[in-house]
Every structure is written in C-alpha cells, then in structure tokens.
Amino acid sequence: MAGATPQLIKELREMTGAGMLDCKNALNETDGDLEKAVQALREAGLGKAAKKAGNIAAEGVVAVKVNADSTVATMLELNAQTDFVAKNENFLNLTQEIVSHAQVNGITDAETLVASTINGMAFPEFLNGKIATIGENLVARKLVSVTGTVVNGYVHTNGRVGVLLAATCDASVKEKASTLLKSLAMHASAMKPTVISYTDLDPEFVDSENRAIVAEIIADNDELKRLGKPLKNIPDFVSRSQLTEVAIANAKANFEAELKEQGKPEKIWANIIPGKIERYITDNTQLDGRFALLSQAYVMNDKITVEQAIAEVDASIKITEYIRFELGEGIEKKEEDFAAEVAKQMGK
C-alpha cells in the first residue's frame, strides 16, 4: 500500500485536525492505512478521535416497525441515489411495505430479504418494478430484527438514524419498559454507543484507547496550562473492566497517604475518601461513557447514567439487544461501490 499521498494527507488532516507534517509521517509509518494513522496520531497526542473518511451518508431512509405486542421489532435501511427521491412519498411508502413484509415473514437479514417473494414476485423483480416507477436505483441494504419480552425502536426525524432495543422484564412492568426503551432508543440515536455494557468492549480496543485517551488529556493539559486554567486528571485506566479490586485498593491507599501528608486527622478520612474514590472511578472509566450504553449519562437526565435510569423504572428490566443504523454507514465514497451493491441485489 502506498504511504502518504496528497489526498490521504488531506483526508487525515480533516479527520484528526493534526498538522500536515504529522499526518504525512503517520501515513508513511502505516503504509497509507488511514485507520492506523489516526490511531498513531492519537497515541502521540496529536489528533482527536475521528470517523472513517471513507464513510459518507448515502441517500435513503431508515425505517422501523414494532409488532402489536411489542415482542418483535424490525429495521430496514433502503438506499436511493438522491435526497429528492428519499423524500418522495412513493419511496417512503415502499420502505414501509418492505419492512412490514420482512417482519410478517420472519425475515431478519438483507440476504434473506433479497431471496424472498413479495406480492407474488421475486424480490429483485419487485424492486426493479419500483425502480422503473421511482426512476432511480434502489437497494435494500440492511435489515435486522430483534425479539424480547419487550422491544421498541426509534427513527430520528430526518430518517437517517434508527435504533432497536430489546429487553427482558417482569410482565407487570412491560408497558413502562416499552416507554423506557423508546426513550433509550432516542438517547442512543444521539449518543452513538457501540455496545450495551463496558463488559462487551474488546480488551485490545480498551488497551489501545487507554493510550490514546491519556495522550489526548496530556495534550489538552499543555494548552490548559498555557491558558492558566485548571488541569484535567490524567487517568490510569479508561474502563471499568480495568478497575480491579487491587486497582481500587491502590487508589484508596494513595488517597490515604495524601491525606496523611496533608495533616488531615485520620478520623475524618472516612468522610473524604468515598468522594475521592467516586471521582477516581469517573476519571478512569471515560471510555465506557463514550461507547457503552449503560455507562453513558442519560440525555433525559444527565445527573444519572442509563443504567441508573433503568433501575429507577424497575430492577427487572435488562437490555438484551441493541442495534443502531446510521444511513450510509460503511458505503465508500466511490459511486461504483453503491452501484455494485445495486447490481448484486438485482442479480446482475
């Protein structure tokens, strides 16, 4: 793979905000791999976390359908070529027809959808007819379904983001759980968690982000020091998965040593240390707040976490599935990639 090219340098600068020379060096060191170059810059404290430059928002909509007893929810991403068509009533009606067809027939993925029969026609034939009417290439690109004691979903008003959630709960609180899941789906559409719990985070990812987040904070502190502002605490860890009993015990011992050195009477330590431990845990679980749904500050009440918000409704509610679609996620910039997906679904 080629190293730093003018186009790659431009993309990396837009993604990370790092300087041109730093971007060039990072790309040369990683043989032009943008993802690795972003991480290298972050670990050096030279760039911020960024989305992949190759991902763009394709046109189309995300649609969600929840069945009558809130036990099955289905989500579809239907792509078109232009925003104009994506707002067309015929196109919007088509998305509802397809997502309903999928749910009624127990179809849970795009491959099975394409192989299905709808209105007495093979799906590719059916979609070709709609393409002829609407006047643009269309592709049913993603389809998923979740099941549970209770499920719910949400599509943002622009139709570009959708979320499904499933949970178990006591039968007596199913209605309240359904309402809560709707709110949590709205939360997830905005906050973009990637997993339900910090326990779902990959250990290698946690380790890599640990180095990157520490480097970011050190870089931020350099600027804060220049501005004469309070510095941020530099964490030892970034996820609750790293906070073993030994780590917490070590932190407590360090706080006790600090209080002793400051001449604080030992009889008041018990009043001070719990708050310090709580702050230590907050400082050392920053990754969880970024990526784990249950650890995030709840957008409806940022004084509590999502996990605490669930507990306040009922302790029996447990999230079992979480899926988020963002329109066009994973479609590369090159138009031929979209055309290839269309051709594949049309059987060409």
Q: What does this molecule look like?
A:
The protein is flat, with a radius of gyration of 24 Å. It has helices at residues 6-16, 20-29, 34-43, 83-86, 89-104, 110-114, 123-134, 174-191, 203-227, 245-261, 269-283, 286-291, 306-313, 335-346; strands at 59-66, 72-80, 117-118, 121-122, 139-147, 150-155, 161-168, 297-298, 301-305, 318-326. β8 (297-298) and β9 (301-305) form a beta hairpin. The chain is an alpha+beta fold. α1 (6-16) crosses α3 (34-43), α2 crosses α3 and α10 packs across α11. The model is unreliable at 51-57 (pLDDT under 50). Strands 1-2-5 form a three-stranded antiparallel β-sheet. The protein has a three-stranded antiparallel β-sheet with strand order 6-7-10, covered by helices on one side. A two-stranded antiparallel ribbon has the order 3-4. The protein is built from 14 helices and ten strands. It is 49% helix and 17% strand.
Summarize the structure.
With 348 residues, this protein is of the alpha+beta class.
Shape: flat
Q: Mean of residue pLDDT?
A: 90
Binned strand content: 15-25%
Q: State the end-to-end CA separation.
A: 31 Å
Main beta-sheet annotation: 3 strands, antiparallel
Number-wise, the strands total: 10
Low-pLDDT residue intervals, each spanning 5 or more residues: 51-57
Rg to the nearest angstrom? Answer: 24 Å
Order of helices and strands: HHHEEHHHEEHEEEHHHHHEEHEH
- Number of helical elements: 14
**Portion of residues in helices?**
40-55%
Structural class by SSE content? alpha+beta
Main sheet: strand order: 1-2-5
Family: Belongs to the EF-Ts family.
Protein name: Elongation factor Ts
Pfam family, one: EF_TS
Domain Translation elongation factor EFTs/EF1B dimerisation: 73-329
